[in-house]
């Protein structure tokens, strides 16, 4: 079985920072993904879905530091559902994406300042307490062992 999500979208607002009772940093973000299609009548239609994304520790720190409203990101993670009781005693449920990896796909402050797959694209992967940052060249070079010739 697998629980994996990959989203490419834009931030609907600046990341919101929180800290757990144990002092771990948590960031929540809203990501918009938009799908365009032509309906049966020939009209172009757009449908936008909003996703709540949660990042922890070093990934959360990097997201809080570098991401702002409108930035294009690629989120890899898993779907998780949490339940809790609110102050009135009502049971609440929320479904969100727990980020495993966050890639910043555009330049800070600009929507299309550089191509989405540029060599200086940054990826943040939590690895214990360390954050690894790699360029798209390093990622593609590391997968060259899979080439069958």
Compact summary:
The protein is mostly beta strands and about 150 residues long. It has helices at about 55-65, 135-140, and strands spanning about 5-10, 15-20, 25-40, 45-55, 70-85, 90-105, 120-125, 130-135. The radius of gyration is 18 Å and the shape is globular.
Write up this protein.
The protein is mainly β. The longest helix has 10 residues, at 57-66. A hairpin with a 5-residue loop joins strand 3 (25-38) and strand 4 (44-56). The chain has helices at residues 57-66, 136-142; strands at 5-11, 16-19, 25-38, 44-56, 72-85, 91-104, 122-127, 130-134. A 5-stranded mixed beta barrel has the order 1-3-4-6-5. It has 2 helices and 8 strands. The chain has a single domain (5-146), classed as Beta Barrel (OB fold (Dihydrolipoamide Acetyltransferase, E2P)). 11% of the residues lie in helices and 52% in strands.
From the helix content, strand content and strand pairing, which structural class follows?
A: mainly beta
Poorly predicted regions are 111-122, 126-147
CATH superfamily: Nucleic acid-binding proteins
Q: Major β-sheet, in short?
A: 5 strands, mixed, barrel
Q: Report helical residue fraction.
A: 10-25%
Number of domains: 1
Cα separation of the termini: 32 Å
- On the 0 to 100 scale, the average pLDDT is 80
């Amino acid at each position: 079985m697998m629980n994996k999500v990959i989203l490419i979208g834009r931030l609907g607002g600046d990341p919101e920072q929180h800290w757990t009772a144990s002092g771990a940093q948590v960031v929540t973000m809203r990501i918009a993904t938009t799908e365009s299609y032509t309906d049966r009548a020939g009209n172009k239609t757009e449908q936008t879905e909003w996703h709540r994304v949660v990042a922890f520790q070093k990934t959360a720190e990097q997201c809080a530091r570098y991401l702002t409203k409108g930035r294009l990101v690629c989120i890899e993670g898993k779907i998780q559902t949490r339940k809790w009781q609110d102050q009135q005693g009502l049971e609440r449920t929320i479904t969100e994406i727990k980020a495993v990896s966050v890639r910043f796909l555009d330049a800070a402050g600009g929507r299309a300042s550089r191509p989405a797959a540029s060599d200086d694209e940054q990826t943040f992967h939590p690895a214990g307490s360390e954050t690894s940052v790699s360029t798209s060249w390093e990622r593609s070079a590391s997968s060259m062992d899979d080439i069958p010739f």
